[in-house]
Amino acid sequence: MEKNISIAVDGPAGAGKSTISKLLAKQLEFIYIDTGAMYRAITYKALKLGIDTQDETMYEFIDDTSITLTKDNRVLVDEHEVTEEIRSTEISNNVSIVSSIKTVREKLVSLQRNIAEKNHVVMDGRDIGTNVLPNADVKFYLNASVDVRAKRRYLENSKKGIESNFEQIKQDIIKRDYLDSTRELNPLRKADDAIEVDTSALSIDEVVNKLIVIIKRKVEQ
Ligand code: CDP
Ligand code: CDP
């Protein structure tokens, strides 16, 4: 059987990973895997259970927790849909702690590798190129200035009719980036062989077109 193709997309919050990855997957007819949604889903369950999220011993529940990403990008925890709920500020502000827990990472990374073994994938996250799929066919590291990233989130909220404070969003992003890039296990880091793209001044279409050209060149070599 031919080996499945995998595209890894990493970068900090608001760099455009999920928007771009979804569009790439559509054009390439690959499956899109949002690994951040998986960490958010576990965080949702941890908060529902009311555990002390810093306590490593409280995570036995993940052995009998099921996480499903559907083809139309809905997220289910134990068969219950949480697609909207996992985007809340409460989840965003707790997810970096939950994702630093060893048992959580082990379970989700194994799930992610399994999916990539069976499908052509575009997978986005923090440690895809460095840890989950070190042999990915193409690796991207998307980045943008913190002001641009905070503004994007702010605009996203406005469009949804959610009132928010730009400075607060910016501080939350800075804190999450710090926690994600300084944690001990699989921190956010550009893989040595990843192609870095600064999306600050690029439209979504410009980024997609740029990445498609690179993918076609690399994969068809
Ligand atoms: O969309 P956004 O950039 O805000 O975040 P996300 O991709 O939904 O990821 C949420 C959080 O999950 C990140 O801040 C990380 O703490 C964690 N995460 C991770 O540790 N490893 C990954 N491969 C993906 C996400
Ligand atoms: O997944 P990640 O947190 O990296 O970012 P995202 O959720 O895909 O993108 C955050 C916001 O930025 C979305 O509302 C996108 O529409 C927007 N965006 C943009 O305006 N220009 C880009 N080049 C990429 C994303």
UniProtKB/TrEMBL annotation:
It comes from the Bacteria. The keyword Electron transport does not apply. Its EC number is 2.7.4.25. GO terms for molecular function: ATP binding; CMP kinase activity; dCMP kinase activity. One of its GO terms (cellular component) is cytosol. Residues 7-216 form the Cytidylate kinase domain. It is found in: Cytoplasm. It holds the Pfam family Cytidylate_kin. InterPro entries: Cytidylate_kin (IPR003136), Cytidylate_kinase_dom (IPR011994), P-loop_NTPase (IPR027417). CDD domains: CMPK (cd02020). GO terms for biological process: nucleobase-containing small molecule interconversion; pyrimidine nucleotide metabolic process. ATP binds at G11, P12, A13, G14, A15, G16, K17, S18, T19. Keywords: ATP-binding, Cytoplasm, Kinase, Nucleotide-binding, Transferase. The keyword Nucleotide-binding applies. It catalyses: CMP + ATP = CDP + ADP; dCMP + ATP = dCDP + ADP. Belongs to the cytidylate kinase family. Type 1 subfamily. This is Cytidylate kinase. It comes from Haloplasma contractile SSD-17B.
